[in-house]
Design a protein that fits this description.
With 444 residues, this protein is an alpha+beta fold. The chain has 3 domains: 151 residues, Porin chaperone SurA, peptide-binding domain (Triger factor/SurA peptide-binding fold), CATH 1.10.4030; 107 residues, Chitinase A, domain 3, CATH 3.10.50; 106 residues, Chitinase A, domain 3, CATH 3.10.50.40. The chain contains 14 helices and 11 strands. Strands 4-3-6-5 form a 4-stranded antiparallel β-sheet, sandwiched between helices. Strands 8-7-10-9 form a 4-stranded antiparallel β-sheet. α4 crosses α6. The radius of gyration is 24 Å and the shape is globular. The protein starts with 28 loop residues before the first helix and ends in a 6-residue tail after the last strand.
Amino acid sequence: MIDAFFSGRWLLALCLSALPWGVAHTQSPQSVQAQVVDHVVALVNSDPITNTEFRQRLASVQAQIKAQGAAQVSDSELSAQVLEQLVLERVQLQRAEALGLRVEADSVADAKRRLASQSGMSLAAFERQWLAQGITPETFDRDLRQQLLLQRLREREAQARVKVSEAEIDEYIAQQQRLKPLSNLSLHLAQVVLPVPADADAARESAVRAQAEDIVAQARAGQDFAQLAKRHSQSDEATQGGSLGMRPVARLPELFVNATARLPVGAVVSPLRSGAGWHVLKVLDREQVGLPDALTQQTRARHLLLRPSAALSEAQAVAQLERWREQIRVGQATFESLARLHSQDGSAQAGGDLGWTSPGQFVPEFESVMDALPLGEVSSVVVSRFGVHLIRVDERREVPMGLPQQRVEVRNLLRDDKARMALGQWLSELRAQAFVEYREAPRP
């Protein structure tokens, strides 16, 4: 492949949603602090969480819920969830500090430019957007640095546990053959996840299972499942009522499919035990669709790459590419000629032509922009971890997915599933090891 910016799509992509308490602030920290009397609401291994921190996070989460139109939860339930979120975050930050992990200023600046690029904005426009929301540059950089630090920690501690063997790929393919009669079925499930630490004794295991059975009983008695998930579930989708969205059965764990594939809408499944803990599932909806062909979309694109260096800053590279983009737009130059003359990539001699590529061959910040481009249109400047790009998509086509690519797809699916489970398990273990003392209750 051409140079190092090709990468497996399992790499985590930075996105705006990674900053739920950064970009969603409705008030600056200073304005919130001026409105509250500060006190300690909890100690996490002797590290205090203050009322000010709690109120800032609560305001941010409330703004997100309102913006997304998500179902409301009671004030007491939301407060408990927000406080637990802060506790879990603090435990992770303490772990990162103990390991000596750091995020350099250059990494924060690069991530901010990538976020702006992924939003289709210049860095200046991106900064104006969050300044208009009352978020200071210092607050945004602090939150972004913290999220990058948490990302590095999770990659080190949780994703390092993830391994996918050839035997597991073989088993998955065999499983899909067994499920072939169901291969045109999609299910919309919701779940409550109750993690069980790896070192849990029999009493803890029994207690968590009893809690799961009680949740099943409440759901079958008519309790709103979304509220039960928000109250009890310890998973990323808890704030969305446990909803996993509509997914083909091939994108669901076999454990879930075996338990729900033949159940009617509204059914609640008895507790299921996975490697992560206990799950309670409800079938929200189901769809029977036509069996899709094993096709994949390939893209033929060109790019022009500048690599920032001591002689060329990233800001200068961005400005230069913006000038060249304008020359292409008005017909003063062609993409191919500029790529041949200036691109700092092995594709330069071919006018930036990257050839036919399949999904997952580029890093996410590059591929997401490429996939959204109409044919023949030149992208805005794209900042990736490997440099600054202009992209043009020349052709797209659908081709049969060969066995090697099918195995790559299966490996990615299995890795994603294992990574989610490993992260949940690791967070559960980390939380169990922490000493948390709740002090004075949060207040306005």
